[in-house]
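Teaching assistant here, posting this on the class forum so everyone can see the example we discussed in section. The complex has five components, and the goal was to see what a joint structure prediction looks like when all of them are supplied at once.
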Amino acid sequence: MVQHAACMTYGANGDFSERQGVDLASVLPLDSRRVTWLDIHGMTEPSALEPFSTSLGIHPLTLEDILNTEQRPKMEDFGDYVFIDLNMLWYDSEQGVEAQQVSFILGSRYVISFQRGDVDVFAGVRERLRSGKGRLRKMGADYLAYALVDAVVDNYFLVLEKLGEEIEDIEEALIANPGRETLRGIHHLKRELLHLRKSVWPLREAVGALDRGESALIQPGTRAYLRDVYDHTIQVIDALETYRDMVSGMLDIYLSSISNRMNEVMKVLTIISTVFIPLTFLAGVYGMNFRFMPELSWRWGYPALLGIMLTVAAVMLAFFRRKKWL
Amino acid sequence: MVQHAACMTYGANGDFSERQGVDLASVLPLDSRRVTWLDIHGMTEPSALEPFSTSLGIHPLTLEDILNTEQRPKMEDFGDYVFIDLNMLWYDSEQGVEAQQVSFILGSRYVISFQRGDVDVFAGVRERLRSGKGRLRKMGADYLAYALVDAVVDNYFLVLEKLGEEIEDIEEALIANPGRETLRGIHHLKRELLHLRKSVWPLREAVGALDRGESALIQPGTRAYLRDVYDHTIQVIDALETYRDMVSGMLDIYLSSISNRMNEVMKVLTIISTVFIPLTFLAGVYGMNFRFMPELSWRWGYPALLGIMLTVAAVMLAFFRRKKWL
Amino acid sequence: MVQHAACMTYGANGDFSERQGVDLASVLPLDSRRVTWLDIHGMTEPSALEPFSTSLGIHPLTLEDILNTEQRPKMEDFGDYVFIDLNMLWYDSEQGVEAQQVSFILGSRYVISFQRGDVDVFAGVRERLRSGKGRLRKMGADYLAYALVDAVVDNYFLVLEKLGEEIEDIEEALIANPGRETLRGIHHLKRELLHLRKSVWPLREAVGALDRGESALIQPGTRAYLRDVYDHTIQVIDALETYRDMVSGMLDIYLSSISNRMNEVMKVLTIISTVFIPLTFLAGVYGMNFRFMPELSWRWGYPALLGIMLTVAAVMLAFFRRKKWL
Amino acid sequence: MVQHAACMTYGANGDFSERQGVDLASVLPLDSRRVTWLDIHGMTEPSALEPFSTSLGIHPLTLEDILNTEQRPKMEDFGDYVFIDLNMLWYDSEQGVEAQQVSFILGSRYVISFQRGDVDVFAGVRERLRSGKGRLRKMGADYLAYALVDAVVDNYFLVLEKLGEEIEDIEEALIANPGRETLRGIHHLKRELLHLRKSVWPLREAVGALDRGESALIQPGTRAYLRDVYDHTIQVIDALETYRDMVSGMLDIYLSSISNRMNEVMKVLTIISTVFIPLTFLAGVYGMNFRFMPELSWRWGYPALLGIMLTVAAVMLAFFRRKKWL
Amino acid sequence: MVQHAACMTYGANGDFSERQGVDLASVLPLDSRRVTWLDIHGMTEPSALEPFSTSLGIHPLTLEDILNTEQRPKMEDFGDYVFIDLNMLWYDSEQGVEAQQVSFILGSRYVISFQRGDVDVFAGVRERLRSGKGRLRKMGADYLAYALVDAVVDNYFLVLEKLGEEIEDIEEALIANPGRETLRGIHHLKRELLHLRKSVWPLREAVGALDRGESALIQPGTRAYLRDVYDHTIQVIDALETYRDMVSGMLDIYLSSISNRMNEVMKVLTIISTVFIPLTFLAGVYGMNFRFMPELSWRWGYPALLGIMLTVAAVMLAFFRRKKWL
């Protein structure tokens, strides 16, 4: 079922019309002299798209891909139209990185976009269309498709920024007071980067294919813009790989600092035991019940022994300190 | 020996016939105006296929490959026919991931499929053929081959799902109560992913070769479908690589949590010893038999010492707590 | 010096002749209407081959390569002939994986094979030639070369099988009773896989070059067979890489199980000490010589203390058990 | 806002003029018979460049890239001009490796360079232009662009040298007295190499694209120089990768030496305890109050026991020494 | 400054002349009908080469590369000549692997070689030229260049052999008596392999470019020889990678054996303590001063307790032995 559909059309002469909550069937046939953007939210039934399938020549596999929510980002050129499937990412402060599939069909004079969830990143594009500022209304459907893809890719930078902040938080915790929470944070981050990576690499591939592709639907003037989006995806990948290296370095630091701290503890405890063991031995010696132990009856035997014990302890501690064990 | 063979034929005019338990020799010569699907189970002897070899021009090496059960997935174009060798995987709740070789010979008007074991994934294709729904009976042998390959690849997703559940189980165990069982589970999973990987990478190669291949046997309209299967194999590989990363992360968590727990135990034990050792020393001192030890004859010597001992223990514990060693 | 040379010739009309212990010079000039296989064992002197060099146009570098026993597997196309250099591997139950260089010169109507050691894998090919069964005597020199290369590559599977058995043995030892022997076994296996890998990768390259090569000496009908050998080399590599992953997993298991066992031992020992230390302290307290210690003169002081000691020990052990430290 | 702009022009006849602090608008139109170098510092507003955009046909995306300070090094050929974006690196003794973006627009007869910060590496090029020595004033704009890129890349070697010194310092500390500082130094170095790597790999790509590129703006004679710069970037990468390997080796050495030292400490402490524990036991035995202990009333019992204790201690120490535990 | 230069010329008619200590300027112009080899040692000034630069058309960048001693091995084709830059390696028994840059300029009828240091590997080539044996004097300048490159590459095998011996020494030490020296040896070896690798990979690239290159200066007959050198560089790389794997395996063995030994020591020490602690407790019990302790006045109390102590110790040791802790 389609939750909501909006239709915007604009032409070279500068006119622009927008309809919210349109019935899908009612927008056909498309006006071939104007650019039409059909923005569909919450598609769940294939039948709703069937009129498009026949009127615009959409391949059954494309319809299947649109309905299937676990697609890998990709770009497919069907000649009459180009199908683009992307993952839109955003950072939810509680859930971490969230993903939502966004699909586009770019035809000669139309773009159909399909969004699954409630998060909407096309507000900016919509506003630029309505205001008529910038070059958006002066260009064709391919430029509109670029603008939409660009909006999705730009969102990745926000996600990266948030992850960058998370990394900094964990690094501070790592210096201040590393604990189990820190370890959990590192592993959480590691997994998020893993998932991000899973959607960024094919994204790059898809955008790259769009840029290099031979599709006649994309005009030479738009290619430079696509290359720009492509550069952005590479930047995202670079940042991601750097983050991965940083996170794995953080894990190393965590493990070695935990093990260091534990070793320090054990060392101090062992030193305490080691200092007292010879003293206890001395006390044991003079606790023996031999009849003939001359020291026992000496007048200053007891204080002398206490002195000896103090000396032994002091010598041992000095030795440990000189060896830098303390 | 052939255990069972079924033969289905269908033509452009919509007629369809099916014969179960056919004798291989009896299906020859094939009707060149209809599509023939010969589905053979449990082949063990080369001689059974010899009539095909001569009538359909099958290369001796292909026959050898069909009989050899330890083949690597591959696609070979022999001009007159294309030979496809796949590993069908399924998840057995006791044995884990199991594999079975499935081979196809795709000719201009026929598909011969060879299955070794009892697991059958072609039931869906068979049903679609019998019912005549969908496009299957309207298309050629290449589309039938696509449908069979697709059925095999779709099964991989079921296997992945099961492995995903296994991973989740182990992750829960990892948080709740990691033990030797968890370690064994991780290593078991690791090995299963290794085996899966061994058959998925060449699968991708084989399907990719089919899609990109120049074979005249595959019509342009079928290529989009093959590309779709290819995308599925890439999705399988992506999931697999993510699983591998997750499993190796789980191993790290396991090892560090085990070592952490052990360290905690040793720390507590050592602290107990460390607290008692100075106390034991004090007791030893007043167990000495010096004649001149004034404290021994003091009226409150004993309770005073007990008080001192309590104080020493309390100070040490407070110190350890302040140092966060406890 | 040539230790032994055998010469077999056969022609399209089905005749076949074999001579053992031939003098190299005596086989020249080769009969251009028949296929000649010259099988040379134990070559150590370049001069013995000089007649061939001039009569068949063998390049001096090829002669050098044949005499040099530490070659990397390779395939070189010299136009008039193709030079193939392989490592034959076998598994010696005492020495492990052993290697021996085998070289081939494939000309338009002849194959010269050079074997260094005593292990001979060409017995099967020789037998098929003598019996005249199969297609061997009906095909040209290129098919003979294929049969010889195939015999060498098939031997790799035997080696893999033996290594697979070794891996299983070590895995069992790893579960039953891991010790220093197991570690040594793992490292030995690791090194053998390393050496195997060193000869398998260039083998794949060499066979691949033969298959893809443009050499006019190899007829189209033989290419399918070469592709088959190529597939075998890939299978060997796949198995090898899987073995490597398994062995490195085994090392991880070994190390973590050893460290686990050691930790268990230390834990038990430390627990024993920890239980006795407070008890020893109590005994020390009542061994003190204070004049005023009322407990000492109580009638039931001694048994009461023993009871307290038992209680303390029991409580500690119960605590350790509840904490799952025991 | 443009902080400072300098304009140098020179022609084939050897004349040369230089203006500091020019207004950007005033340099247009460029003299097409002379080479113009416009060196702009501290650009922050797009409007300042708009006259160039129209007069020289600069694409809006290029202007955006120039203003965006977090670009990845790249080279883009827009036909009429080539846009080059580099990271200039330098080593600040306090901050470590610092980066600053430097962009170039190379047209047929002009080069515009954009520098963001205060560090200036073009002093050498400027001097060579002013003095007229070398080939710089005799060549075209492409050679000027090469000279500027070369100046940036040469700076990388200075950075590498400084990092090399840092590595040597840490290595010395590693041998002399490894501590927490050393670990921090290693991780700092690791992160710096990570950042360096992030800008060097795309640098290589960009310079390589310039060298291999088909751009008509770059004359054949200049290509050899570009290849030279390209070789330099490869040398930087080689050094970088070697440094990375060295640093990861240093981390291994650090961790194993720390763990070794800790183990040594624990061993010595444990040996001290182990020697005294049997002695304390002996003292405990003769501290027992049995009425019938004949040794207690022997004349030489006490000295004999002391002798036994010394012997036990000596034997244990000798045993430990023979076992190389001490 | 040029330290020493030697000039050899030879022609097709078999004549040969050699001059030692020539002045560079005096050898120009080169006799175009004969092959000239100019062997220059210890170049430090660019001016010395200027006559060549103009007479033979050497590019300024080549002169720069010759003087720059920290070049990466490379091959550059300048049309009129090919510039080859290699690292000559040798093994110094004290310093380990040492490197020296060797450069060649190969023109149509001449080779100029530049050596920096005192180590000379061209003695063999020089001798073959003087004696006139072999094909060297019958071939052109390209074959001479091959012979010189081959001499450099052959030296790598000597270095590998020495490193192989070092590896064997360390392996023996690893089995016999691993200590800090062994660790240092492993790290030293690791670093040497790192440096070797740094010069071998570009060497392979350079020789490969020479072999595959389109340069008209290299005649078809010489290509087979270059391919041979190329094979040698691949063999060097193979050996190197194997060594790297072996060394990293050795590090694993070292670390695990050190940690094993330490664990063994700690285990034995802990067992000694653990055996004595219950005994000391027993002695402590009978050292208590309770008035009513019936055992103290038993006739056989003391020997009975000693017997109990022995039993306890024996039981504990037996238990530890059965558990394989001893």
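For the discussion questions: The CA atoms of residues 28 and 153 of chain D lie 30 Å apart. The longest helix of chain D spans residues 220-285. Think about how each of these relates to the inputs above.
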